[in-house]
Amino acid sequence: MIRKLTLALALAGTFGFAHAATEADVDASFNPYKIGFPSAPGLTPGMVLTKANVDSFKEVLAVGTYKMIKDGYYELKVGATTQFEMNKAYVEATKKNLNTAKLGPNNGDITGFVAGRPFPEEPDAKDPRAGEKLAWNYKYGVNWGDNAAIYPFFWKYRNMESGQLERTIKMNFHFLNFKHRVQDAPVPEVTPNPSDLFRAIYVKVLEPQDLKNTQLLIQRYDDDQKLDDAYLYLGFQRRVRRLATGQTTDAFLGSDLMIEDFEGYNGRVSDMKWAYKGTKNVLLPMWNHNDLKLTDEFGDSDGYKYVSFGGKGECFFDGSWQLRKVYVVEATPVNANHPVSKRVFYMDAQLGNLNGAVEIYDRKGELWKVWTVGKSHPDHHLPVNKGSGIGIDDAFSMVDVQSKHCTTGQFKGQVDAKLNPASMFQVQYMRGGD
Amino acid sequence: MTKLKAAGKPLLKSCMMALGAAFAASSGAAGLPELGSDTTPWTADVYYENHTAFRGKDATGKTVGLSKFRNTVQVEADKGLSDGWKFHGVLRGSWDGVYRMNKGQFGEDAGGPIMLQSTTPGGYIYTPHGAGPVTKDVVDGLGLTGNVFTNGYPDSPNDGLRVLGDRVHSIGGGVAFGVPVRPCDTDGRGCVDLGGYGDKNLSELEFSEFNDRLDFIREAYVRKNVPLADGKSMFLKIGKQQVVWGRTDLFRVLDVINPVDFSRNNIYDELQDIRIPMWIAQAEYRMGPSESMQDRNLQVVWNFDKFRPNILGQCGSPNVILDAGCFFRGMKTLWDYGGTVANFANVGPDTLLATNFGPGQIGLANVHLPEWSLENTQLGVKYEGVTMGGLAFSLNALHYRSQLPSLHGGKRATNAFINEYRDAWPYLISFDMYFPRVNLLGGSVDFESEALGAAIRMEGAMTWGEEFANTNRPELYSRNRVFRGVVGIDRPTFIPFINPHRTTLISGQLFWQHIFDHELEDGPLGKVGIPDFKDNFIATLLIKGFMMNDRVSPQLIIARDFRARSHTIAPAVEWSMSDDLKVTFGANFKGGKGANTFDDCRACNPWAPFTSGPDIPGDPMQAYSRGLSGFEPLGRFRAGPIGSAVNEDEIFVSLRYKF
To answer: For chain B, what are the domain ranges?
Structure first.
């Protein structure tokens, strides 16, 4: 009996901080602004943060965002904080499966998770695995929903000093959750799924000429300890190559992004040591797409316009920022040879996404890149996204502050199951083109 | 072999029926594709590429100079058709100015008069092509007045010739003869269609895609994915296309459905650009996952095009892999016109005199290119899948024709000593060219090693029906089973001085070829049998770095043929100056042993006893090889494509622009 009790205590101590979440926690998690939106002294919607006044607002800025403004690269437009109501099915799944998810003995172990947000309770600074729980909330977050596409997706490579546009890449991105689906048929899982895949991302490059028909497939297992499978189809080789682990931390197609940077963080929970560093109110780029200054530079046939860019070297999107409740999370790679020494995420408490503001540090511990993804409210974007309850990634800026180089992204995000059939996420699909 | 062939017939028929049924089901269910009906507009990309190369000194000591000034325009067009069919086409037209700009090497002024070697106790002596010393008159003087050797070649003058293999090696006491090197409209000697090359005139060499096989249509096919029940689908693709099997770079173990044009740039162009597209129908039953497999696909490939072999390069053009095209042209010239063969007649101790053979005595007589027939079409089946654990694999079977020629010797000829014609002369170097049927079974697999931080690829295939030169056989070839395997490893590695933030790709491969029932014996004068090594290994290493956001990519490729003891080192830098303009600078340098020697069958004594001699041991009435060797003709199989190009060091610049 004593041995059992000791074991139980040890397990409790090892595996996590015992705290049963309640429905109130769920409500607070998905609506952190129930009692009102946050504010900061002197910060008002409509104002612009510039090099001249940014020091007054340093507390509500991510470190990287502050640096971009302070260095005169960017002027930040402040908007009003708005509700990003979450996908109802996802919220319901969270409630239904409350407290079923438990951390296992090791970083990256989880048991009992079914669907929804696995750990909706407020993170506790005293909980040594609070950061890991937030990472699980991200991994199993609504993100792009059960399935979605960025169709198309334009990336530009720029010299930030000169503004020279070096490359323009046109791609399609597709996302599919094989498991833990909450809304689109089949729920909860695409079957058969013998490998127990959780999620897959498929990318196809349309332009330019030397990259045309390059395709990327990433398959992530539900078992977080299992390495992702990644495949690359090279148009000029006409065959699928399996990617080695190290290639997911390389510049993807020469951009300033690694495959691991996709969506903020595109790796396993177990690849990082996660540390919760506190809760703050921070300005994140979130807006209504249809209210922005847009560009029709790509001449979409249906009239869709993209977020425009400006600032130093045209590396920064013309979007508005709003004060959001965020969890500051640090992720340190387990692999000592990883090119990154640390990432700092400002996780939006409501959406659970990681990519609003990210700082990436190089192996020497020096700030390397500043990574921001602006989100649009789905009801103020394409009609197909209306009511989806998903923050629509709308524009990104990845700035390499060391080489003064940036990659920008302009999205046409579409939460549309038809664009993402399960067959698209099989290796063979890559061989079926030209 | 017989059993396999017999089994192949019903397999061929049943697979074609299945393929036909697949297309019929598609068109029957949804109507035939209305190719003229628009569903999406045409899109087209137009490219221009210039590839200019300079070559250094060859074995003659002379600098070759310009070896390529190729200008290519390529149009890639797409169109969505009705019923979900999509069309993709690639048109390519090239003009290589090297034939006019360096016509002394590759055009109408190439070659010239040559001297051929004789071995005497006092050393080598040289006489012009046509001058013997062994001539009809000389043989008459021996009392063989009925002989049909010749005193000269009025129809095959000593001009526009090079000595066989002189770019790679000296004659060295071995076999050699004159090879015409000018375009076939300037010099028609030895010109014969070897399967898309060998008989080309200047304009056909310059504009290589404009020929009767319409090679300017690189690709033209329609494709469609037909949804079936349970998430399965049938993917169909029909038209002129490339079908790529396998997981290997550079080596073609499973990737053998399309032949390859080595004349474009030897082994140094991307396979995509040198595979010869064929008219092919393929159907792929995509079954998707099951309870035990993550992915399952069954592909049937029917190559219904008229047979085409690999293009090895016409003699006199810049890229003649293995110098094979020159051997063929020289041998065809010998058959049609006769010719002087160096170091041939063993008329005394340590004496081998150049000999004037007449037409119809030795050489290459006929090229048997398979005509189109249902029986001659080629069929492949592949099962490709991914296991639950993420292991990707394929199982492949292919019934095809060898894309490399096989020379069958010991054929009909006239005995030059006594003017006697026979339908067969065992061991005589009187050849016909064939392309044998081959069956292949193989597979491939790849997986990731987290411990090594690398992706590992393996590929292997066994073939039945391939033929090899074999001086131990009266017909001078044998049919052997062959296993080829490749293990490759791709490891991204941080090399800080190249890029501290981005890995450099290091990719190594080891290729192994094993010939079963290999024959190699010790004859009295040297090795006799199959010149290809029983076991051969070639290693490749690619180091590819990425700089300036991948716009600048330096790379180094090293290949080592271990048994040939030769290597090539190919550094290059790719620079994407913009989305539309890419410039590549590079070079390839070869080194090592270079040319090899092997039994050349001079001591085969096919016209016994006349072809015996004081230095040729054994029964003078018996025909068989004693193993006297030289560089030509079989040393090339030991030197391999790297060793036989040892004197083709090049530097190049390539520019590609998209309009």
So the answer is: 2-107+196-658
